[in-house]
Amino acid sequence: MSSRNRSKRRSTGRPKGRIVLVLGGASSGKSELALQLGGSRGPRAFVATGQGLDDEMAGRIARHQATRSPEWHTIEEPFDVEAWFSKEGSEYQTIILDCVTLWLSNLVGIGLVESVIFARVAAMLDAMRCTGATVIIVSNELGSGLVPAEPSVRAFRDLSGRVNQCLAAGADEAYLAVSGLPLRLK
Predict the structure, then answer these.
(1) Confidence class for position 133, pLDDT limits 50, 70, 90
(2) SS3 69
């Protein structure tokens, strides 16, 4: 075993997972970039956090599903992402989580406070590392637009930005998708 592979192993002998963060604005190409980074090797999972609660969102989800090859096993998990990674993540070589922003919206929607959300983000990152898989996280960069008029929307934008900072700090690589072009950040 090479020294690089030895350094990726935990004391349990299980390989340490690799985390890649892909950020971008709406329709920036972030999901397409995540699929490219995901490659075509091994068992692959696509963990979707969106919920088709209205016709527009259902159509958006259907369009996203059409862009994935059938080799991707799709899991719809709008709330308990960290639990899924802990229980099922080690079965896959590559996992895409798309997207953190919708997951946060779901958690805020059920009334979770920021301290609980940040604890769940930390638990999610730990669970991702324990899978041994390459995990590609997709999240929206909301801070580049106008300052929202509504206080609750500003609070969500700020929460999303702080969560993205945590994800970027915990990631091995980070990219920003802009107009379909990837910019490597880390």
Answers:
(1) very high
(2) coil
Strands of the 181-184 sheet, one edge to the other: 72-76, 44-48, 94-98, 134-140, 18-24, 173-178, 181-184
| 168: amino acid identity, one letter | A
105, with CB counted inside 10 A (0-12, 13-18, 19+), is middle
Helix or strand (DSSP H, E) at 65 = helix 55-66
What range does the domain containing 57 cover? 19-180
Residue 112: give its domain's CATH number: 3.40.50.300
Any domain includes 9 = no
Asked, for residue 121, whether it belongs to a domain, the answer is yes
pLDDT averaged over every residue in the chain? 90
Q: Which residues are catalytic?
A: 64
The pLDDT of 42-66, averaged and rounded, is 85
Chain centroid offset of residue 147 CA = 24
Q: Is residue 136 in a domain?
A: yes
| Number of domain units in the chain | 1
pTM: 0.89
